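Let us begin with a simple case.
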Amino acid sequence: MAARPDHVNEAQKKSLEAAVQLAQLSIENTQRVIEVQVAVAKSLFEDSVNNAKALSGIKDPQEAVQIRTRLAQNSAEKVFAGAREIAEIITKAQAQVGKLVGEHVSSSSTEMMEAIQKMFQGMPISDKGTMDAIQNTLNTTRTTVEQLTRASSDAFQAFTQASVPATTGKSRAAK
């Protein structure tokens, strides 16, 4: 019976480590997104300043329209490129989080099943049929948990892959 607190402590330690990894992933990816946003904003500001200088010396209205049109087009391209880059960062982050969570759930369920098996093995059950029934139940439960973990991981991956074209605008280009 003294083994149970150790199993609980170990499970809590692993859960804390997984939470720290998730937080670290979140911080790193947020930092990347902010860096992209700052780079795009800086570039747009520099372009605006340069175009304002260019526009200040122009007397021909058509040339001014051309410069403004070029500025708008360049700005839109930079904004969309930044949005695509952010979408890629988010997609990679979703995949990393999905993998980490899937691994943690799988590992936790395996450890839980092993702890339950040890608990039942330590009980004074003399009937072989009862022990076999318990073992079969535990094996069925383990298989079910593994299938659920795989299915949820597959569903998360499918969701992540389906969201990429929608966020990057690729689905519109394909039509």
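The second case is a distinct protein. As before, the sequence precedes its structure tokens.
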Amino acid sequence: MDERYREPRKIDERAQQDPIDWPIVLRTTARWLLVIGALYLVGWILWRAGTSTTPFIIGLVLAYLLLPIVKRLDRWMPRWASITAVYLVGLLVLEVLIVFVVPPAANQIEQFVRNVPGWFEQGNSFVNEQILEFNERASPEVRQQVEQQVNNIQNTVQRNASTYAQRAATFALNSVIGIFETITFLLGFLVIPFFLFYILVDSNKLPDAINTLLHPRIRADFWNIWQIVDGTMGRYIRGQLLLGLIIGAASFIGLTVLNLLGFEVPYTVLLAIIAGVGELIPVIGPILSAIPAIIVAIGSGPQTVIAVIILYALIQQLENQILVPRIVGDTLRLHAALLMALLVLAGAVGGLGLVILSAPLAAIGRDAFVYLHRRLREPPQPPEVAINGLVEEEREPEPARRRRPVVS
């Protein structure tokens, strides 16, 4: 074959083998633009998806909470068997809740809603009695000023009646639209068990996949920061959920005992659920959850109110002296005064969700700041030294030692 036909082929092969000689600044800029563009695209898709991503977020949270249990079961059985055991226990707990908790809670909520008009009538009668008593005792000048203020309020309400009607119509329309969105939202929850299963099965492959995306120089720092986040958030959330379960059960048992003693405290299941959910809010949650029980007990007399206050005080002491040191321990290492300030700021900025997560997020921010400060100091501390004291080391359970017989 003629050499003229072979020369272009040799040039093409050489061009395929030699990489493009780009400047290092240009390649670095292009790589960062690629990463930023990919993150922006993913963020834009998640933002546009809105509430449809909620089932997947719940699945990730469940996987985060259940993964330590699955890893412990891996010592005695394969991964698929561990996940199956966790699923079976979860289905059993769900069935117990559906059979023993949901029906009485629904009945008590229905009863509570049914009694609301009667309570309004009682409150209206009480207000009218106070007004009559005030008119009998107050001087004409004071009564004239009070009547003038009441008339001003009535006039304001009448002027804004059309605005209130429009808002009510808009609310009704949004409620109808919300019903259809809720149906679609609930259908999305059907994928949670399957999504959760695949996450738990392939969780061992996740570290290797993340390492392929990270530069070798930042892998140690990334996993140290992850240990700070996982250690604080995981122990806190799992501990608070367990505390909520125990406190809810203790409240139900205590309120039931008060009813057996003749104090007549209604809505025991509903109040127990409120007490359990209140544990998610640090410091002031248990105090806030006791307020509905005290309000409900007012209708049964002062003795019932005193009994309910004593019961919740005992439960609070049980939590502070026994349960919290054993379950949560000193995970956060934050002063109570600082926690209360964080709760107020979180409520003003992000609502209830941020209130619940404000304590662990503050602890994570503090530890991450300390770690990065150690890494950036001069001379910088290595990653294995900078992480000291910021995460708790998990110790493997030691095998039980056989006691030697005492020789007399």
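Residues 79-137 form the longest helix (59 residues). Residues 52-113+150-208 form one domain.
Keep these points in mind for the review questions at the end of the chapter.
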